[in-house]
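Hi R.,

Here's the chain you asked about this morning:
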Amino acid sequence: MKEFFGIGGYQRTPEGAFSWQHLLFVTSLMVLMVVLAVWLGKRNKHKSDRQKNLVLIWAAILIDGFELMKIIISCVDDPSAWTAMLPLFLCSIQLIAIPLAAFSTGRIREAALDFVSVFGLLGAVLGTYGATQNYNAYPVLSFTNMVSGITHSISGFAALYIMIAGMADMKKKNMWITFAILLSFCVAAYIANVLVDYNYMFLMRGDGTPYDILYNLVGGHAVLYPLSVVVLFVIYIWAFYSIWHAVEKKKQLTAV
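And here is the predicted structure, written out as tokens:
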């Protein structure tokens, strides 16, 4: 158990990013994520909002519960570990967005549902298959990687479930809220990076993730690189909304 939780540091040699162990583990999580989201989404699609929302409530409790457990255990072993565990990664925003979608009302809830839909699946893929820095640093079957895999899978599950259950509206008037949430976190992440010398939102460097492609394209420029990351986020949001509304429009035309 001490080795599983990494108390005093992991003694096992990490299997490495994209090893068969890494791919098998995260693929198992992704399959479970999709199966549960499709099953529950279709089952609840025509039920009341209260019944639909119950699934999101459980998702919110589980994702924050696992993350809190990780922080507590990590900080017990290393009191300074909190500097690397602030909720300032793109995927970490779901720790706030999913509870908002589950427990808030009105326009805030609408915007939260949209935000989870837009970034949930992206975060799930990047945080499992793309988390090369984790799988190069820690064994696959370790507390760190298992909790990370579970929380990212819950993020993707929530996004798929919201879309399949028909809970997302993707109203264009709420798009600016999605932009505002993301940009606010980017600013906070950049400030935190400077203060604690970390790499939240991967705004400082790629760290072995797909962001390295962008980092190398701009030659690691201290200004161009973080700006390019933010621009990519903005383009992604715009593209997601555009594709969503194009598909909805086609559905309406087909129905007619």
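One quick note: The mean pLDDT is 91.

Cheers,
M.
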